[in-house]
Amino acid sequence: MRLATSALRILDFDIENRPLSYLGQDFTTGEVTSIAWKWIGDRSPYHAVLLGIDPLEEMLERFRLAYNAADMVTGHYIRKHDLPVLNGALLEWGLEPLEQKLSQDTKLDLRKQRYQSASQENLAEMLGIPAPKIHMNTPRWRKANRLTPDGIELTRRRAVGDVKQHIALRRKLLEMDWLGAPRVWRP
Known about the structure:
Strand order of the largest sheet: 3-2-1-4-5-6
Order of helices and strands: EEEHEHEHHHE
Structural class: alpha/beta
CATH architecture: 2-Layer Sandwich
Largest sheet: 6 strands, mixed
């Protein structure tokens, strides 16, 4: 039996982050550079907060308001990447952690399969999703991570583009019955 999510207020989101410092050997720490989100089924605009324009503490608090208003969050690999990264940033800034939340992750909740990439970009292409991913090569990532004006705009376009693509991808996976039931993310 599948959980009916149509009555839930669902927040689709994505983050971008950059390497920050060495932790030891070749392991690096990171820092959130953007958070983009949109309410599923709502006519409201896409929201994006960007390091270099917005202070990180303000970015985290603005996202937290949306997160707390959601019944469920969704994204691609959010339970293993985006949500833990955000919680790490909240810890660094001395802010309260995100609360546990019902989540649907289009990588982790994808039904078992083999020999197909489970990246958002590859799934979207394979399923004919028209929203393209904004590609970032090394020079673009350098601009983005150095917070140049052009780089900040690239980061905004990528994060918002990922949310646009993800909304369409999730819709298609649900139509095809390729997503398992949502799960509670526990910080």
